[in-house]
Amino acid sequence: RDNVIVDANYPMTMHGEGGNPYFTDTTPPAILITGNTMTSNNAGAGAISSWGRNLRNVTITGNTLVNPLYSIRFYGNEAGMTVANNKLVGDILIPKTTQVASSGNQTYAPDGNGVTIAEQASHAAVPAGACS
């Protein structure tokens, strides 16, 4: 929460559990990603990217995510993913093998209003007291 990552190659990556049964389809959100600002300088990546297989039960909500191509990029075979109420510059890449519930996101074109969002994100700062 309250992380600001700008101009990074891969601001955040998530690795699936492979064959490890630790996270199951019935586990409540195992990972909550909320209230962050992330911008990627790698057009092939995403502000948030997954890799590996079988990532489960991640909620991405209330973030500002910027990448000209994909704001969020899923690898495939994810389940129980929720993407809601984010400001997104760039699309969400969702392979056919991924289960994502998406709602309330504001998506901006990278060459339109997304330019303003990206500029604002590049000047974002961690709120006072967040690291105390």
What features would you describe in this structure?
- With 132 residues, this protein is mainly β.
- Helix content is 7%, strand content 40%.
- The chain contains 1 helix and 11 strands, in the order βββββββββββα.
- It has one helix at 114-122, and strands at residues 4-8, 12-15, 31-34, 37-40, 48-51, 58-61, 64-73, 81-84, 87-93, 100-103, 106-108.
- Strands 1, 2, 4, 5, 7, 9 and 11 form a 7-stranded parallel β-sheet that branches. Strands 3-6-8-10 form a 4-stranded parallel β-sheet, with no helix packed on it.
- The longest helix has 9 residues, at 114-122.
- It is globular, with a radius of gyration of 14 Å.
Strand % is 35-45%
Contiguous helical run count = 1
Secondary-structure element order, as H and E?
EEEEEEEEEEEH
Q: Count the strands?
A: 11
Distance between the termini: 13 Å
Low-confidence parts: none
Oligomer: single chain
CA radius of gyration: 14 Å
DSSP helix fraction: under 10%
Mean pLDDT: 83
Largest sheet: 7 strands, parallel
Specify the overall morphology.
globular
Class derived from helix and strand content: mainly beta
